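Researcher: Here's a chain I'd like modeled. Treat it as a single chain, no partners, no ligands.
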Amino acid sequence: MTCAIREYQDTIETHTHDDFHQVVIPFTGGLEIDIEGRQGIIAGREIGIVVQGERHSFRADDDNRFLVLDIENQADPEIERLWQIAVDKPFLKLSEASLSLTNYARFNSHVAKSDKLLRLWQSLFIQSLSSEIDNGIDHIPERLKKVLHYIEMNYATQISNKDLADVACLSSSQLHHVFQSTLGTSPQKYVTERKLSAAKQLMLKGMSLAHIADEVGFADQGSFSRAFKQHHGISPGAWRKQELALKSPEFG
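Model: Modeled as a single isolated chain. Structure tokens:
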């Protein structure tokens, strides 16, 4: 099993992997992909699974970054189940548990520096995915996938519920119902969470809070700080100090 941070081109590429399965996890941007005729967009909380030997074509947005796991066949019935189901359903929405594991990898972008911790993280992540598939985690409806992709590309702007409803070709009330039933949150809360997720990445790069607020689409630093504390129960500055203190030296 290998792990790499990759950026994809905005031109279409096509190939197969004869020796391994692949799991593609979005950090930023979106990847349009066709896996043996099954089309989807890997973005936000939606990951893609390419089974060994499947021919797939893909292209990405200009600004993108993905965590890619290349996984050889293993004599493990629990893991094998993941590939069997992925043949028909290659796109999966991350649960809160899997999302937390992904955020850990996102924080430690140089995870490959520690082989021991890398293997542990990969094992936990793949087992989590396999368990979720076996327990019937629903896949995102196509209309909602389009909305999530739109949010991924435009979260730093002001997005109204009408904008999102138009993308989905639904009324605002219908869209709200789809969000609640599928993701357990409202459209605007999801947009705010996406802004905050992007903000956390920028905070770890040392940007000022005022600059970050502007970059991710908040009206000002005050509104950013209030939204962050309401969601995380801690101020942005305190969160950054805490995260940097907890960062393991093994991950650079």
